[in-house]
Amino acid sequence: MNRNHKLLLFGAGCLSLLAVSAFHACVNASASEVKEPVDFVNPYIGNISHLLVPTFPTVQLPNSMLRVYPERADYTAQLLNGLPVIVTNHRERSAFKINPGHDGAMSAIKQYTYDNECLTPYDFSVDIATPEGNDPMHVHYAVSNQSAIYDIDFDSSEPGKPAYIAVSTGNGKINVDGNRISGWQQLPNDTRVYVWLEVDKAPTASGILEDGSVNSGLGSADGENACAVWQFADGTKNVRLRYGVSFISEEQAANNLEREIPKYDIDAVAANGRKVWNDALGRIDVKGGTDDQKTVLYSSYYRTFERPICMSEDGRYFSAFDGKVHEDEGTPFYTDDWIWDTYRAAHPLRTLMDADREEAILASFLRMAEQMGTGWMPTFPEVNGDSRRMNSNHGVASIADAVVKGLDVDTLKAYEACRRGIEEKTLAPWSGNPAGWIDAFYAEHGYIPALRPGEKETDPNVNGWEKRQPIAVTLGTSYDQWCLARIAEALGKADDAARYDSLSHNYRNVYNAETAFFHPKDKDGKFIEPFDYRYDGGPGAREFYGENNGWVYRWDVPHNVADLIDLMGGNEKFAANLDQTFREPLGRGKYHFYYTLPDHTGNVGQFSMANEPSLHIPYLYNYAGMPWKTQKCIRDLLKMWFRNDLMGVPGDEDGGGMTSFVVFSSLGFYPVTPGLPIYNIGSPLFEHASMKLANGNTFEIVAEGASDNNKYIQSARLNGQEWNKSWISHADIMAGGKLELQMGSHPNKAWASAPESIPPRSL
Predict the structure, then answer these.
(1) What SS3 state is found at 177?
(2) Buried b (16+ CB within 10 A) or exposed e, 708-717
(3) Do the beta carbons of residue 360 and residue 63 sit within 8 Å?
(4) CA 323 to chain centre
(5) Gap between the Cα atoms of 232 and 165, Å rounded
(6) What is the chain's Cα-based Rg?
(7) pLDDT digits (tens, 9 = 90+) for 108-150
(8) 160 CA to centre of own chain
(9) Cβ(621)–Cβ(630) below 8 Å
(10) DSSP H helical segments within 696-755, as ranges?
(11) Whole-angstrom Cα distance, residue 670 to residue 614?
């Protein structure tokens, strides 16, 4: 990247909203004439949200503990809140702050205007100044796994106003000694993050910030916004600052720094980060398509590496699940994995491409179950423990998927953690309590009862805001029990497998045959009437569903689509109901719809591209023998909602939960049912794609003539043999080889439409 820059005095002028232009400016400054995979990554895609949470332009190495992004609300914000040190949750501010300057206005909390920002997955550079346009500086940053380095150019340093760097903790302790600052910041659940910072210039003064000046007689301070300062000699034009982070101790943070960045060589750190990202992203190679399509693909793939993060430091890790430091015994420990979002596609993608890491992540789940003392599989593990957010226990799906795909999992231990998580923990959303009243009801009646309008809650486990979500929980638990049956089957527990297979049909207990929807029932077995599947359920439809309305949850039976087709009356009615999902109007104004359902954006009719329960829906036409409809639908959705621009993500992108759908679908296939080792075939964007798989083999997808118009499969061959099925097995992919598709501009309704061609219930 070209580091030549002209430092300007600038104020809070309008920011350019052209993220694509900013991205191309970074790419064009690259020394490489031929674009490599990382050059196609645009971290600004989705930085302005359609409604809720935007993506953030995250700088990190794949799955690394250290992540940062410019601290601002979203791309439209005109001020930066200091320079970041470490983000401990992908929606939180940075722990610690670094505030450089040479205006004499030292502060623990400082804002800057910014300009000429250029950001890649592994580094960023930016010009900053005070909000008044004074004190201009240029900053360059590069990251490693547990350490990073800043290069700060001070434009001018007037006599009596020497350059300085202030480092603060939001809530903790800060220490300073010469050119070293260290400290910690308190996070929730007795979790602490530690930092160790060093500079390459000997400061003329160092101490604790008090009343806007440096108290050199103080070496430490604690509390809110405790701040240490280095001051440098008049005329200092440049300071390089390197730092390490840790969740174990300050000393370990220093060790991490020395291990990864022993010298103040920012170019070497950036070059290494670039190589690491190219190695990771380069496992997928595509030809054909447009540059924008490649940018969306590689930017989406980059997002799948944001979480979970590796917590192991020199063979040890801190676990917030018991508040202790453990030896990792050669298997890295991972956390910050929002499983409700990631089990659907992010885990299956990693199983194909990076099985060793997936095995370590699943082993981490089992460690968490033990460390929490409950033995229950986690549902929403974060840096500071399991927050138990969302509904259901979908860690069991990731375990089942790994087991049936042959990964190395402690299957018996996993089975017990999954079983106990489903049967001993309450099914009430957002709760980590033991089972209560609604759980006993589910065990006896096979569904979660809904409250009638005005009926008061009787189970203290139910969250006052999140409600029971009875349909979402009933359907989700039915699927979890099917997954549990797959694990039992692998262990040879035939009776358990049969029992859980039977329980996996519990979704039938809330199916309304008259409307062909999953319909909330009260404790007496009566449907709640009258009922509007679009709007009923309060904010986020939580009284009955969860973040999405009844039109989305109508399709939430990924483990038994064939039975859902039977319930709806056959292929034609099933497909007609799917069609109507994409055609049904909002029914009221957008303001009213999104006020009620703010997660339900990215609409095509009542379908929501913006939320994870929708991801598999476009592929369901395959099961009705109408794969051409899946092909058109997938292409339309990718083109409409995933674009190379600031609003190019239709909703919350939760650590690969959504972008892994983009990766799979762009390549031409998708795992509709984690726990079943098959993939549905869609419509590839690229004429040629190759995947370097976890086992060393390469799988190729060739789509002859693929283009915006040529989205329909005319014929297919797998390893040279005619292929007339709308699915492919995991074993076929992992064996390597080639799937060849002949594409055309009109559907071939004969291809993969026969009953024997549809995706199977089992293998």
Answers:
(1) strand
(2) eebbbbbbbe
(3) no
(4) 25
(5) 9
(6) 27
(7) 999 999 999 999 999 999 999 999 988 999 999 999 999 999 9
(8) 48
(9) yes
(10) 730-734
(11) 13
Q: Which domains does the chain have, with CATH numbers?
A: 19-279 (2.70.98.10), 284-757 (1.50.10)
- 236-295: per-residue pLDDT in tens? 999 999 999 999 999 999 999 999 999 999 999 999 999 999 999 999 999 999 999 999
d(CA 613, CA 617): 8
Torsion angle in degrees (nearest 10) through CA of 399, 552, 598, 539: -100
The answer to whether the beta carbons of residues 703 and 741 sit under 8 Å apart is yes
HEC string for 331-368 = CCCEECCCHHHHCCCHHHHHHHHCHHHHHHHHHHHHHH
Tokens representing residue 482 in the block: 């099917």
Q: How many residues does the chain have?
A: 763
CA 28, CA 118: separation in Å to the nearest integer?
11
Q: Enumerate the H helices of 603-672 as residue ranges.
A: 627-641, 659-667
The token pair that represents 550 in the structure block: 């009844």
Torsion of CA 208, 209, 210, 212, to 10 degrees: 160
- Which of 13-17, 67-71, 625-629 is the least confident region? 13-17
CA dihedral 278, 280, 282, 284 (to 10 degrees): -160
By the 8 A CB rule, do 334 and 359 touch?
Answer: no
* Nearest C-alpha neighbor of 321 from the set 405, 385, 401, 267: 385
Which of 223, 229, 224 has the alpha carbon at shortest distance from 177? 229
The phi-psi region of residue 164 (left if phi > 0; otherwise alpha if psi is between -120 and 50; otherwise beta) is beta
H or E element in which residue 10 lies: none
Q: For residues 296 and 685, is the Cβ–Cβ distance under 8 A?
A: no
Sheet holding 737-744, edge to edge: 284-287, 688-692, 698-704, 737-744, 712-718, 721-722
CB atoms within 10 A of CB 197: 27
d(CA 138, CA 37): 27
Q: Using an 8 Å Cβ cutoff, are 48 and 647 in contact?
A: yes
The strand pairing partners of 54, in sequence order, are none
More confident residue, 3 or 405: 405
CA distance 409 to 750: 41
| Buried b or exposed e, range 589-626, using 16+ CB within 10 angstroms | eeeebbebbbbbbbbbebbbbbbbbbbbbbbbbbbbbb
> Among 1-10, 73-82, 102-111, 529-538, which is the least confidently predicted range?
1-10
* Tokens standing for residue 328: 């990792």
Cβ 463 vs Cβ 428: under 8 Å: yes
Residue 657 C-alpha from the chain's centroid: 5
Residue 523 buriedness (CB in 10 A; 0-12 / 13-18 / 19+) = middle
CB 546 within 8 A of CB 612: no
Output the CA–CA distances (angstroms, integers) from residue 616 to 81, 168, 561, in the order listed. 39, 45, 11
- CA 588, 590, 596, 598 dihedral sign is positive
Q: Tell how strand 220-231 and strand 164-177 pair up.
A: antiparallel
Q: What is the pTM of this model?
A: 0.96
Cα of first residue to Cα of last residue in the chain, in angstroms, is: 50
Residue 650 is given by DSSP the state -
Instruction: Kindly tell me if the per-residue pLDDT of 90 is higher than 80.
Output: no
Three-state helix/strand/coil letters over 221-244? EEEEEEEEEEECCCCCCEEEEEEE
